[in-house]
Specification:
Mean pLDDT: 94
Structural class: mainly beta
CATH class: Mainly Beta
Largest sheet: 4 strands, mixed
Strand content: over 45%
Number of strands: 7
Number of domains: 1
Number of helices: 1
Strand order of the largest sheet: 3-2-5-4
Order of helices and strands: EHEEEEEE
CATH architecture: Sandwich
Low-confidence stretches: none
Helix content: 10-25%
Oligomer: single chain
Distance between the termini: 9 Å
């Protein structure tokens, strides 16, 4: 199980969320949404301070992470954060 963040995705988050090197971006499980491996749940993001990260990757100086107690959502799969330049948006893919 891995967290893989493309450099272009990290730059998008930096721009959209006004992040700077040294910031932390938590990926968390939230109730609702669709298109995930866990029906009725989806992923959200927020600037936060890590407490017990289970996965993390540093890109462009930003630490992207998921807390250990949210890893059940991935069902032992990898999480990819990719930038979609046609829609100027992020794709979160689990596979």
């Amino acid at each position: 199980m891995r967290l893989v963040v493309e450099q272009s995705a990290a730059r998008w988050y930096m721009r959209e969320m006004e992040l700077t090197s040294g910031d932390h971006l938590r990926i968390f499980v939230r109730l609702g949404g669709s298109g995930s491996v866990q029906p009725g749940y989806s992923l959200g993001v927020m600037k936060d301070t890590p407490r017990n990260p289970g996965l993390h990757q540093v890109v462009e100086g930003i630490t992207f992470y998921m807390e250990d107690d949210n890893l059940w959502f991935l069902d032992e799969k990898d999480l990819y954060l990719r930038f979609n330049d046609h829609e100027d948006d992020i794709l979160m893919e689990i596979g």
